[in-house]
TrEMBL record:
Keywords: Isomerase
EC code(s) of this entry: 5.1.3.15
Protein name per UniProt: Putative glucose-6-phosphate 1-epimerase
Statement: the UniProt record of this protein carries the keyword Isomerase: yes
Record lineage: Bacteria, Pseudomonadati, Pseudomonadota, Gammaproteobacteria, Enterobacterales
Catalyzed reactions: alpha-D-glucose 6-phosphate = beta-D-glucose 6-phosphate
Gene3D superfamilies associated with the record: 2.70.98.10
Pfam families: Aldose_epim (PF01263)
Residues passing through the membrane, by range: none
Protein family membership: Belongs to the glucose-6-phosphate 1-epimerase family.
Top-level class of the enzyme under EC nomenclature: isomerase
Amino acid sequence: MIEQLLSLPVVNQISTTISQRQKDELPVIVVSHPKVRAAVALQGAHLLAWQPEGQEPVLWMSSASAFKEGVAIRGGIPICWPWFGPAGKPSHGFARNMPWELTDHKENDQGVVLTLTLKSSEETLALWPHDFTLTARFTLGETCHIELESTGDFEANSALHTYFNIGDIADVSIKGLGGSFIDKVDGAKAKQETGDLTFSGQTDRIYTQPQATSEIIDPVLKRTLVIAHENNADVVAWNPGAQLSVSMADMPDDGYKTMVCVETAQVSHTHTSTHAAPARLAVTFSLRK
Ligand SMILES: O=P(O)(O)OC[C@H]1O[C@H](O)[C@H](O)[C@@H](O)[C@@H]1O
């Protein structure tokens, strides 16, 4: 993905390492820095790629995803806000389908910080009756830190819905999810299960008592992805499995084999935002050999 984006013409050279390019209908901010290559679409403040120097891509992107105005991107990190899933329309909230603004950028020897902002508008007020400012701050270097901050006067759900690039879904296991989950493929039943999560078909679970850190053990890519969650109630684990993958137009038929979503989420409870105390959801990714 990042090679493809870096081959697109530069629309605006923002700094030495940051440029704006155009992928079909969507403007994309591309980072090419000695320590890291990365890209974020202004629509949805959607991180499309984060690849530290010398590593395989960390985020999975669907080769069948559309890059169209108002259409959700399949892969990377959709920001779900102010609701999750089918709790409202559109699915996973409107923040992922709207154009955000790049409001700040910084860079140093270690990498780049990009800040994107979405504010309430007539269009959002028609969908959700609250004024808000939503800020997403991406600190991109050898590690990746993402912080989502919402200011206003409301309750909201949220998720950093990360699609990770893996060697093979049949071989990965996930640690640190805790034993209690809501099983969305079995009538949203509350269940208990100890041990690491492995995959043998469609899996869609909201873990409600996760540990602070989840780990994706990937024996094929010979690495462990470490996901340090901050200020989340839940972690969602999702893989569509073969059948659902075939039925999704924006996913290749075998797409499910090389991705897994491990989502830093605030789903089982809402976060409260006030003007004095914004709500905050954050995550840090790092890699271990
Ligand atoms: O197809 P989307 O709206 O992007 O949602 C993709 C998936 O997101 C989450 O992981 C949910 O738990 C799943 O139920 C949902 O299918």
